[in-house]
C-alpha cells in the first residue's frame, strides 16, 4: 500500500500530489508550519488526507511547545491550530482534525506535559489508522459493485 501521508520518526512525510502522476516525490514536514504550507500549496489533497495531515501537524506543533503548565501549553496550541486552520479555511476535514486534537488535549489536561504530547501523537496515529480502515472498507464494498473487466473513470 502506498502511504500518501505518514508519521515517521518525529516528522510527517507526504507524497507531493502536485508532482503526480509524472513523479513520485515526498515532502517531509518537521513543523506544524510545514504541514500548513503543504496543505496551502496542495501538496496534500483530498478531505480525508487533509484531516489526517492536520492531526499530525497538531502533534508536531504540540511537540515544539515548551510550556510547563497545561493552561500555557493549551494557549500556545490554540495559536498554532489557528494558523493551521488558515492554510485552507474551507476544508471541513482540516477543521475536524484540529478540533478532535484540541478536544483530546482538553480531556487530557491532568496529564504531565510530556504524557499529553504523547497522547496527542497517539490520537493523530489513531486518526490515521481510522482513515486507512475506512478507505479499505469503501474499497471492499466498491469491489462488489464493479464487475471484472469494467472500466471506472474518476476525476
TrEMBL record:
GO terms for biological process: L-methionine salvage from methylthioadenosine. It holds the Pfam family IF-2B. The keyword Hydrolase does not apply. One of its GO terms (molecular function) is S-methyl-5-thioribose-1-phosphate isomerase activity. Keywords: Isomerase. Belongs to the eIF-2B alpha/beta/delta subunits family. MtnA subfamily. This is S-methyl-5-thioribose-1-phosphate isomerase. It comes from marine metagenome. The lineage of its organism: unclassified sequences, metagenomes, ecological metagenomes.
